[in-house]
Design goal:
This protein has helices at about 45-50, 70-75, 95-105, 110-120, 135-150, 165-180, 195-200, 220, 235-245, 265-275, 290-295; strands at about 5-15, 15-30, 30-35, 60-65, 65, 80-85, 155-160, 185-190, 205-210, 210-215, 225-235, 250-255, 260, 280-285. It is α/β, with parallel strands linked by helices. Mean pLDDT is about 90; it is low at about 300-309. InterPro entries: AAA+_ATPase, ABC_transporter-like_ATP-bd, P-loop_NTPase.
């Protein structure tokens, strides 16, 4: 697969605050790339840098094989985005809003073509109603129609289900899947909801405090057949060195806390190896929940509810 986005050592500092810290990842053509992290993890800041809305403090952004620093206009003509709530004209109809944004994109379209775009997002029946009468979910879908009006190859969606009711969430989820499956779009979708990313993503990145925690195929990272083992010993530094020098190195999925991802049948062998190495084990706790996995890999905040079912 061709690489659509290649991000290298990206960082962003706001005075003393580091919002994004040495972040690197790649997005391949056809991906629904899940960008997962708790609120405040740095997701929106990263996406804004990909859209040239914020200037990076360091690092490189390459989209479609071109540097964003030197080919901004050429790149952004191939990108559509919905960041937070879409900015719409409430006294214009859905069709009039779409017509305005089509002209701004340099691709003025006739009514029939505009209606086709509204049909894609399920709004053709409300095309002539003022957007001030739209529900939150309808506004989100119209925002997506605006992002699609110039037929971009890449869509960037920041928390697209935020603030929606259950029906609105389901509608947006199905729309994203349809755009990937039927219209062959590449999408980057950020969320703090593991349940959403689990359904949508083909590949994903977990970010915490601006840093990459883990990246890979979603069905591998979120495979419930594997067991997550939370390990604590009397000498964590030595334990980590021993694990890295052994056959267990590939099972390490987090170091603070130390978490290994293994099949549950291998847990006795792990314990036996630790004993043979003379490691004093103080905790060896299997965890099976996808939520546990996420919370073990990120710094959990008690006031944040990162999951919805």
């Amino acid at each position: 697969m061709a690489v659509i986005a290649r991000i290298g050592h990206l960082s962003k500092h706001f005075d003393s605050l580091t919002a994004v810290d040495d972040l690197s990842f790649t997005v391949e053509e056809g991906d629904v790339y899940g960008f997962l992290g708790q609120n405040g993890a740095g997701k929106s800041t990263t996406l804004r840098m990909l859209l040239s809305l914020i200037r990076p403090s360091g690092g490189d952004i390459e989209l479609f094989g071109l540097s964003l620093a030197t080919h901004r206009k050429q790149i952004l003509r191939q990108v559509g985005a919905v960041i937070e709530q879409p900015e719409l004209y409430p006294f214009f109809t859905g069709l009039e809003n779409l017509r305005v944004f089509a002209r701004l994109s340099g691709k003025p379209l006739k009514r029939a073509a505009l209606l086709e775009h509204l049909e894609v997002v399920g709004l053709a029946g409300r095309a002539d109603d003022k957007t001030g009468t739209y529900s939150m979910g309808m506004k989100q879908r119209l925002g997506l129609a605006v992002a699609l009006v110039h037929d971009p190859a890449l869509l960037i969606l920041d928390e697209p289900t935020n603030g929606l009711d259950p029906q609105g969430i389901a509608d947006m989820r199905n729309l994203i899947l349809s755009l990937s499956r039927d219209r062959k779009k590449t999408l980057i979708v950020s969320s703090h909801l593991l349940s959403e990313i689990q359904i949508l993503a083909t590949r994903m990145l977990i970010i915490d405090k601006g840093r990459k925690v883990v990246e890979g195929a979603a069905d591998t990272l979120l495979n419930p057949a594997d067991t997550l083992v939370h390990l604590e010993t009397e000498d964590m530094s030595r334990t980590l060195e021993l694990l890295h020098a052994s056959d267990w190195a590939g099972a390490i999925h987090g170091v603070a806390p130390l978490v290994l991802k293994i099949h549950r049948s291998r847990i006795p062998q792990l314990n036996a190896d630790l004993v043979a190495w003379g490691v004093g084990v103080t905790r060896l706790e299997p965890r099976h929940s996808l939520e546990d996995y996420f919370l073990q890999l990120t710094a959990s905040a008690p006031h944040v509810a990162p999951f919805a079912h």
